[in-house]
């Protein structure tokens, strides 16, 4: 079991999608150009834009647009993809504050460097810019999709705080939590990709939502297993206060190995479901192969 280098996620992408990702990065890096603000706020705002991860969410926007648009229409997906990544970035800043997280992606967090107040204001700026980019896409369906996803993220953050004080967190609690906190934005990423190339058929969009939900659940379960085993050198492992599927599954009998196997089984089941629906809707092997990188 290993943590893939971000470059592995890029290697599978068609040249057109790689080019579009680079344009998304340019949009993100220019988001606050020309706007004066104190240095600490500026640095906190740009922290995760500069110390970015694998860009999975904007890549899913672009891959879905690529698959449904037969390789065309990617230009219309760039601003929505940037908006998705900014919403995710804002959620990281808020997560750092709520969890008092000091290290993420191998570096100190804005919370630990600049304090909670500056990190909070940076998240506000980023959310505002995400809304701007969604509006500039010119598609109200994209705007409302991303607004609704942001609402779900906030609900997820609140629910996580509630669950952290409970002694009897169930798998149903966990699945509800990770849908709101993680899977909802991945679901919206794929839907926004479809909207970007003017795919609005209700049945198709419903299936794409299913794909996003399956992938989002798998993504969080994978992170939980990696955190529990502490095999990502860039991030600290899960602490005893975090809601983690391995801890939940092993609580009654102490069988950590068995819990890890069950978690991996759930992860791969979700990915199998996602692949099945993708082949019903678009039958695009590039998207399938990209999603299969989440298997462990």
Strands, helices and their partners?
Layout: H1 6-11, H2 15-29, H3 39-50, H4 56-68, H5 78-99, E1 103-104, E2 107-108, H6 110-114, H7 116-136, H8 140-164, H9 171-196, H10 202-229, H11 245-250, H12 256-281, H13 285-292
Antiparallel strand pairs: 1-2
Strand order within the widest sheet? 1-2
Fraction in helix: over 70%
What Rg do the Cα atoms give? Answer: 18 Å
Helix segment tally = 13
CATH architecture: Orthogonal Bundle
Structural class: mainly alpha
Work out the strand percent. under 5%
Q: How many distinct domains?
A: 1
Poorly predicted runs are none
Question: Mean of the pLDDT scores?
Answer: 93
Give the overall shape, derived from the CA principal axes. globular
Highest CATH level, the class: Mainly Alpha
* Biggest beta sheet summary: 2 strands, antiparallel
How many strands in all? 2
**First-residue to last-residue Cα separation:** 6 Å
Order of helices and strands: HHHHHEEHHHHHHHH
Instruction: Name the CATH superfamily assignment.
Output: Farnesyl Diphosphate Synthase
């Amino acid at each position: 079991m290993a943590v893939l280098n971000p470059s592995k996620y890029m290697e599978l992408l068609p040249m057109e999608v790689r080019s579009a990702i680079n344009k998304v990065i340019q949009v993100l890096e220019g988001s606050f150009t020309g706007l004066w603000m104190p240095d600490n706020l500026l640095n906190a705002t740009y922290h995760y834009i500069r110390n970015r991860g694998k860009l999975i969410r904007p890549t899913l926007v672009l891959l879905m647009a690529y698959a449904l648009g037969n390789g065309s229409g990617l230009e219309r997906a760039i601003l929505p993809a940037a908006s998705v990544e900014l919403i995710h970035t804002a959620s990281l800043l808020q997560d750092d504050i709520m969890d008092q997280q000091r290290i993420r992606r191998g570096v100190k967090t804005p919370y630990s460097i600049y304090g909670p107040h500056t990190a909070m204001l940076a998240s506000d700026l980023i959310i505002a810019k995400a809304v701007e980019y969604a509006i500039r896409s010119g598609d109200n369906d994209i705007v409302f999709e991303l607004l609704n996803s942001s609402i779900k993220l906030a609900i997820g953050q609140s629910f996580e705080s509630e669950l952290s004080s409970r002694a009897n967190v169930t798998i149903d609690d966990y699945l509800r939590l990770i849908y709101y906190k993680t899977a909802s934005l991945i679901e919206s990423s794929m839907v926004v990709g479809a909207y970007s190339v003017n795919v609005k058929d209700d049945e198709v969009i419903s299936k794409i939502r299913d794909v996003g939900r399956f992938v989002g659940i798998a993504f969080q379960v994978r992170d939980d297993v990696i955190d529990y085993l502490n095999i990502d050198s860039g991030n600290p492992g899960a602490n005893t206060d975090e809601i983690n599927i391995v801890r939940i599954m092993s609580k009654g009998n102490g069988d950590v190995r068995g819990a890890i196997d069950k978690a991996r089984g759930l992860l791969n089941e979700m990915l199998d479901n996602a692949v099945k629906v993708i082949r019903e809707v678009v039958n695009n092997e590039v998207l399938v192969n990209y999603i299969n990188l989440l298997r462990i």
